[in-house]
Design goal:
The complex is a heterodimer. Chain A has one domain: Sodium/glucose cotransporter, CATH 1.20.1730. Chain A is mostly helical. In chain A, helix 4 packs across helix 17, helix 8 (115-148) runs parallel beside helix 20 (465-488) and helix 16 packs antiparallel against helix 17. In chain A, strand 2 and strand 3 form a beta hairpin. In chain A, the strands form two sheets. Chain A has a three-stranded antiparallel sheet, with no helix packed on it. Chain A has a two-stranded antiparallel ribbon with strand order 1-4. Chain A has helices spanning 6-27, 31-36, 43-54, 57-70, 76-91, 93-99, 104-112, 115-148, 152-203, 264-268, 277-293, 298-301, 310-327, 329-341, 344-348, 354-363, 367-403, 409-429, 435-459, 465-488, 494-501, 504-521, 530-538; strands spanning 221-224, 229-232, 238-241, 246-249, 257-258. By secondary structure, chain B is mostly helical. Chain B contains seven helices and two strands. Chain B has helices at 2-6, 8-11, 15-41, 45-72, 75-82, 84-88, 96-132, and strands at 90-91, 94-95. Chain B has a two-stranded antiparallel sheet. In chain B, strand 1 (90-91) and strand 2 form a beta hairpin. Classes of the chains: A mainly alpha, B mainly alpha. The interface between A and B is large, with 47 and 49 residues.
C-alpha cells in the first residue's frame, strides 16, 4: 500500500484541475459566463463535459465494487446509468433547451408560472445535490485512506476545498473545460490498466472467475475485517467477525463464504423466478430509478442550457450516450478480475476499493503495477472532482438565485461556499454509508420528483401547478422518506427492506399517478399560455417564430 | 426550315410571363408562410392544430422507441427469471446474461438514440415544410 507514486498523481490531477479552472477564469466575465458558459460551447466539448461530470465515484469505484460483491444482478447499474441518457434524449433534451430556462426551478416557472412550485423544486434540487455530493467526498476519503494511508477526513476535505474554490472562482465556463478534460482522464485511467490486467490474466493461464470449488487466495494474505459479518469456512465452521479482527490465509486457501455476499452460481447467474421474487423486484426498481433518474439530476440538466439550440441538445445527448457507453464497458472487467486477484476485499467488506487495489494486486509491486495504481488513483480523483464541481455549480446556482436572490457574481460565490460547506460536514460525520447505495437513492428521489414533472410538463397540456406540486411532494417525499429510513432507521428484513432500499418501483408510478390525478382535479388552473409554451418547447428554431 | 421557324415563334414570348408568374408565386408563398407563422404565434385554431400535430408525432416517436428498449432490455430480467436455462448458455466462455448486459446493451442504446435523433429531426423538417408550404 505504500505506493509513493499515488500522492504525486493525485496532486497533479488537482493542480491540473485548478490550472484549467484558472484558464477559464480569464475568459469568464459576466454572470451569464458563470452560469451557462454564455451558451457557446460546441456539442463535442459539451458532451465530453457532461460525460466527465456524470461519471462519479459511484461509476468509477462503486460499480466495480458492487459487481465484485453481487455479480450479474448489479450489471443493471452501468446499463441504467447509460440508458438514463436515452430517456433524457427521448423525452427531455430538445424541449428543455428550447424552454430557455436556466435551472429546474426556472423550468417550473416557465411552464407553470408558479412561484411556490419554484420554491419546492429548489428544495428538491438542493436535497438531491447534497445527497449526491456526500458519497463523492466519502469516496475521496476512502481512496486516500486506502492508497496513501491518510486519515479519512483528509481526502474528503481536500476535494471539498478544491472544488469549492474552483467553482467559486471560475464558475461554469471553467467547469466545462475541466469536465471535458476529466472525462478523457477517467477513461484513460480505467482503460490503460485494464489492458495490462487482461494481459496479466492471460499470462497467469486464464484462471477461472468462478472455479468449481470456490475462489481461493492466490498469495498469503492477512485480512483486517472492517464490517461485521458471518464467515463460513470450507470445512463448514461458521465464525462471526467484527471490525478490527485479523485473519490470516495461506496461498491456495479457499475464500470463506461471507454473509451478504453473492457466491458461485448466485454471483454468476441472474435471480430466478419463485425463489427470489424480491431480487426481481429490486432489479426492476433499480432499472426504473436509473433509467428515469438521470433526467432529474440537477447537475445533468444544467448542462443542457449550454447548447445553442434544441437540435444541438439532441446531438450532444447522443454523443454523451456513446461516451458513457464506452466508459461503462470497463468497471465490469475490474469487478470480475477482482474476484480472482483481490478476494480479500469480500472478507474485509471494502469492495469499493477494488478498482484502486486491483492493479497492485494483479501486477505486483513492480514499476508497472505502481504506475498503473497511481494512474487509477488519479482517475478516481478526477471522478470526485468533476462530479462534485458539477453538483456544486448547480446547487450554488439555485441557492444564489432562489435563496439569496442575488444575481451577481459575488452572490454566486457566497452561494458556492454555503452549498459546499453542508455536504462536507455531513461527509465528515457519516462515513459508514455505501457509496453506490446512496447514489442509487439519489437517482430514486430524482426519478420520483423531477422526472414526472419534466415529462408531463413537456408533453401534457393538462398539467397544473397544484398537480405538479402534489406529485412531487407525494412521490419525491416517499422516496426521501425511504432514504432517511435507510440512512438513519433500524435495519429491516424481508419485503419492507426491499421496498425501502429500492423504492423507485413504487414511488415513480405513485408520483405520476398523483400528478395526473391532481392536475385533472384542478383543471381550471391550467395556465392560459400553455399553447404558446408548447409551441416554444417543440417548434424547431429554424422557423424563427 | 419553315417548320423550324414556326416552332420557336410561339415559344419566344413565353419566358417573360413565366418569370413573372414564378416571382408572384414566391412572394405569395412568403406571404402564406408569414401568415402561418403568425397563426402559430397567435394561437389560432389552425396554429394550435399544427403544434398539437407536431407534439403528438414527437411523443409517439419517443414512446415507440422506449417500447423497443422496454422489450429489448426490460424483458431480460423477466426472461432470465422464467427461463433460467438462458442464463447458463455460454458464448465465448462467458455466460449470456453477462455478455448481453455488460457489452451488447450499450451499442443497442446508442443505435436507438441515433434512430431517434434522425426521426425526430425528420418530424421537425416535416413541420417546417408544412408551415412554409403555400397551402396547408
Amino acid at each position: 500500500m505504500g505506493n509513493g507514486l499515488v500522492v504525486p498523481a493525485i496532486v497533479t490531477v488537482t493542480l491540473a484541475t485548478l490550472a484549467i479552472g484558472f484558464y477559464g477564469l480569464r475568459l469568464a466575465r459576466t454572470t451569464s459566463d458563470f452560469l451557462v458558459a454564455s451558451r457557446a460551447v460546441s456539442p463535442t466539448w459539451n458532451a465530453a463535459a457532461i460525460g466527465g461530470e456524470y461519471l462519479s465515484a459511484a461509476s468509477f469505484l462503486g460499480i466495480a465494487g458492487l459487481i465484485l460483491k453481487y455479480g450479474v444482478d448489479v450489471l443493471w447499474y452501468p446499463v441504467g446509468f447509460a440508458a438514463g441518457y436515452l430517456a433524457l434524449l427521448l423525452f427531455v433534451a430538445a424541449p428543455l433547451r428550447r424552454s430557455g430556462a436556466f435551472t429546474l426551478p426556472d423550468f417550473c416557472e416557465v411552464r407553470l408560472g408558479s412561484r411556490r412550485l419554484r420554491t419546492l423544486a429548489t428544495v428538491f434540487v438542493i436535497f438531491i445535490g447534497w445527497l449526491y455530493l456526500v458519497p463523492q467526498l466519502q469516496g475521496a476519503g476512502l481512496t486516500l485512506a486506502t492508497l496513501a494511508g491518510a486519515p479519512y477526513p483528509v481526502g474528503a476535505l481536500l476535494v471539498a476545498a478544491v472544488v469549492t474554490a474552483n467553482v467559486a472562482l471560475g464558475g461554469m465556463r471553467a467547469v466545462t473545460f475541466v469536465q471535458a478534460f476529466q472525462y478523457w482522464l477517467k477513461l484513460t485511467a480505467l482503460a490503460v490498466p485494464a489492458i495490462f490486467l487482461v494481459l496479466q490474466w492471460q499470462a497467469d493461464g486464464r484462471p477461472a472467475v468462478t472455479p468449481p470449488d470456490g475462489p481461493a487466495f492466490r498469495t498469503a494474505t492477512t485480512v483486517v475485517v472492517e464490517h461485521r459479518a458471518a464467515l463460513t469456512f470450507a470445512d463448514g465452521t461458521v465464525r462471526q467477525v467484527r471490525p478490527g479482527d485479523e485473519l490470516t490465509f495461506a496461498a491456495g486457501d479457499p475464500v470463506p463464504e461471507v454473509s451478504g455476499v453473492a457466491d458461485g452460481a448466485d454471483w454468476l447467474l441472474p435471480s430466478a423466478a419463485g425463489d427470489d421474487d424480491r431480487g426481481l423486484f429490486a432489479t426492476y426498481s433499480l432499472i426504473l430509478a436509473t433509467f428515469l433518474g438521470t433526467m432529474g439530476l440537477p447537475h445533468v440538466l444544467v448542462r443542457f442550457y449550454t447548447n445553442p439550440d434544441g437540435a444541438a441538445a439532441r446531438r450532444t445527448t447522443l454523443v454523451v450516450l456513446g461516451l458513457v457507453g464506452v466508459f461503462y464497458l470497463l468497471p465490469t472487467l475490474y469487478g470480475v478480475l477482482g474476484r480472482i486477484y483481490t478476494p480479500q476485499l469480500l472478507v474485509t467488506g471494502q469492495t469499493d476499493a477494488v478498482v484502486v487495489l486491483l492493479p497492485g494486486a494483479a501486477l505486483g509491486d513492480g514499476t508497472t503495477g505502481r504506475l498503473l495504481a497511481a494512474l487509477v488513483a488519479a482517475g478516481a480523483f478526477a471522478a470526485f472532482l468533476s462530479t462534485s464541481s458539477g453538483l456544486l455549480t448547480s446547487v450554488a446556482g439555485v441557492v444564489s438565485t432562489d435563496v439569496l436572490r442575488r444575481g451577481s457574481v459575488r452572490g454566486f460565490r457566497l452561494a458556492t461556499v454555503i452549498a459546499g460547506a453542508v455536504p462536507t460536514l455531513l461527509a465528515l460525520h457519516v462515513s459508514g454509508l455505501d457509496v453506490s447505495q446512496v447514489v442509487g437513492l439519489a437517482f430514486a428521489v430524482a426519478a420520483s420528483s423531477f422526472c414526472p414533472l419534466l415529462v408531463l410538463g413537456i408533453w401534457w397540456r393538462g398539467l397544473t401547478d397544484l398537480g405538479a406540486a402534489a406529485g412531487v411532494l407525494v412521490g419525491g417525499g416517499a422516496a426521501i422518506g425511504a432514504v432517511l429510513v435507510t440512512v438513519l432507521g433500524p435495519p429491516l428484513s424481508g419485503w419492507p427492506a426491499t421496498l425501502i432500499a429500492q423504492p423507485a418501483a413504487w414511488t415513480v408510478p405513485l408520483a405520476f399517478t398523483v400528478m395526473v390525478a391532481a392536475s385533472m382535479a384542478t383543471r381550471h388552473r391550467t395556465p392560459a399560455d400553455v399553447g404558446a409554451t408548447m409551441l416554444r418547447l417543440h417548434a424547431p428554431e429554424a422557423l424563427r417564430l | 426550315m419553315t417548320a423550324d421557324d414556326r416552332v420557336p415563334a410561339p415559344r419566344a414570348p413565353q419566358p417573360r410571363p413565366r418569370t413573372r408568374v414564378v416571382l408572384a408565386e414566391v412572394s405569395r408563398r412568403d406571404d402564406r408562410a408569414d401568415r402561418t407563422r403568425a397563426e402559430l404565434a397567435q394561437q389560432t385554431r389552425v396554429g394550435d392544430a399544427l403544434v398539437r400535430g407536431l407534439v403528438r408525432a414527437q411523443l409517439s416517436l419517443a414512446l415507440r422507441l422506449s417500447l423497443v428498449v422496454l422489450v429489448g432490455l426490460g424483458g431480460l430480467p423477466w426472461l432470465f427469471a422464467i427461463a433460467p436455462a438462458v442464463g447458463r448458455v455460454t458464448v465465448f466462455g462467458a455466460n449470456l446474461p453477462w455478455l448481453l448486459l455488460a457489452v451488447a446493451s450499450f451499442p443497442f442504446l446508442i443505435v436507438v438514440g441515433w434512430a431517434y435523433v434522425r426521426l425526430a429531426e425528420r418530424n421537425e423538417q416535416d413541420f417546417t415544410d408544412l408551415v412554409q408550404r403555400p397551402e396547408h
